[in-house]
Amino acid sequence: MTSLHPKIQEVTERIEKRSSETRATYLELIRGRKPDGFARQKLADGNLAHASAGCAVMDKTQLLGANWPNIGVITAYNDMLSAHAPYEDYPKIIRDAARKVNATAQVAGGVPAMCDGVTQGQQGMELSLFSRDVIALASAVSLSHDMFDGALHLGICDKIVPGLMIAALRFGWLPHVFVPGGPMPSGLPNPEKQRIRQEYALGNVDRDALLKAEAESYHSPGTCTFYGTANSNQMLMEVMGMHIPGAAFENPGTPLREALTRAAVKRVVELTVKRDYTPMGEMIDARSWVNAMVGLMATGGSTNHALHIPAMAAASGYQVELEDFADVSEITPLLCRIYPNGPADVNHFQAAGGMSFVMRELLGAGLLNGEARGIMGTIADHAKEPWLKDGEVAFRDAPESSGDTDIVRPASDPFQKEGGLRMLNGPLGRGVIKVSSVKEDRRIIEAPARVFDDQEALKDAFKAGELDKDFVAVVRFQGPAANGMPELHALSPALGALQDKGFRVALVTDGRMSGASGKIPAAIHVSPEAARGGPLARVQDGDMIRLDAETGELDIDCDPSVFEAREPAQFRPNIQGQGLGRELFGAFRNNASRPDTGGSLFEFFLPLPGGSHG
């Protein structure tokens, strides 16, 4: 096996050392719950009667007899989300597959599944990031019945997989397997969709043309085909070994897709107590989280994972920081060009070699730790390609070469030598920037600030023709404590149109951008956020700001003493910011951690110095 890159080893050891106390506490928790037998044997007769009353007779017999393992299913099914609509029939398939391997399966509970595509630019987006923590809580309630010897998690999209992962790790004495649904077939090419969005923003096409393009892009059940947060989630589950290998990008409704789902059931049963007991909390360790960062950088994945990876890692007792992302990015080559980093979609990526080829290349370059563990053994064992043999999943070696080097390349000939995500730091705070789809001549922007306290103000200024110039848009009061840290992807058409006109523009914000964003240089997740007195609250119109993605600078041309003496702008909650349930989330906004530590309600998994929220 190829020796591990020394920088990867260094980052892994640093995370282990930094997290020694929190990881030890976590392991003590899950080892204290290690089962002696099937979980339901601890329940009283009345408890068990309630838990089995609704089951089919064949399952009830086994549940009451306690002779078979029982698998809990957490489902994010709803039929509004294209990605989650295929899950409608999964419980029936899972129950049948479980019986065939001498097990039972029950839907333990459902979790909300919010679509950022539906709420993008709308008020409901203010609940999006916090939905991750709600999903974790709902999963915990579902699993707290303590009837289960393992769990299957049905979820794909942006906050859903991270929320499910947080809960799964808190029930880390159980084995867990994640079960994807796959991407929809390709529709209107993503670059054409983006072009029409920009034309609409400029007033050159009407709403009918925009709606036609959107409907042709998002047209059937399955995950959206661009490489945003949802598909980045699926990549993470592959490199962390939480999927049956190669399950991420097989389309819904195919024989192989159903076979992969049945294989997931079989595998989680094999990992239960009295069999090859493999608790997830022991399986996932620091190597797993470094592998996640390597996969993110190598594929040009979503910036949202600079929030989600620290939040998920904290649930397993590990403290992951932005410096870890930066160091991994420095030595991880960009191997993929998938929209928005290129014209291809995930179906093209899958056909060109997909995750098995990427993992093979990263393992061969010593960047992916093959000794980390997954549900099928080591991560080296996961670099396989699934296929159907006599109606069941079989595996073959990953392809040795790319099917299309315009989409995916070997580590020896990457698209760029460094990863797709970089850290920024300076007088304006710490943040991240995605550079994999930003042209090299746009990675350094120095221009006057134009300050906005919400995204609608920027849109209004664009429509009024006030932004036809070089400028850095500072959009503040968009962090977790202010309004839940909504994505600001709705700004992309306007800013993209200005950049296409030749203006040098950039975005600096304590908010987020969509996983599909990237054309515009954007310093995002800037911490500390303005609502908690961060430096962005002191920026004024006309201040010269320098965003340098090459050196990692986020600077302002203002005497430090003058800048500090400025009275910070005060966050004024929108008096109309009620309704759509937003008023129910005050406790989340008040207690969310800093963006650079995950923006999570569960900060107690990751103590900050002095116990402050930052």
Question: Can you characterise this structure?
Answer:
This protein is of the alpha/beta class and 614 residues long. Helices cover 37% and strands 13% of the residues. The protein has an 8-stranded mixed beta sheet. Strands 2-1-3-4 form a 4-stranded parallel beta sheet, sandwiched between helices. It has a two-stranded antiparallel sheet with strand order 5-6. Helix 9 packs antiparallel against helix 10 (207-217) and helix 11 (229-239) crosses helix 14 (286-299). The longest helix is centred in the first third of the chain and has 16 residues, at 128-143.
Blueprint of the fold:
Blueprint: H1 6-18, H2 20-31, H3 45-52, H4 57-65, E1 70-75, H5 90-100, E2 104-110, H6 116-119, H7 128-143, E3 150-154, H8 160-170, E4 176-178, H9 190-201, H10 207-217, H11 229-239, H12 255-270, H13 280-283, H14 286-299, H15 305-315, H16 322-331, H17 346-352, H18 354-364, E5 373-374, E6 377-378, H19 379-382, E7 384-389, E8 392-397, E9 421-424, E10 430-434, E11 444-452, H20 455-463, E12 471-475, H21 480-483, H22 492-500, E13 505-509, E14 522-527, E15 544-548, E16 553-556, H23 560-565, H24 586-591
Parallel strand pairs: 1-2, 1-3, 3-4, 11-12, 12-13, 13-14
Antiparallel strand pairs: 5-6, 7-8, 9-10, 10-14, 11-15, 15-16
Helix pairs in contact: 1-14, 1-16, 5-12, 7-8, 8-15, 9-10, 9-22, 11-14, 14-16
Pathway: Carbohydrate metabolism; Entner-Doudoroff pathway
Binding site for [4Fe-4S] cluster: 157, 224
Cofactor: [4Fe-4S] cluster
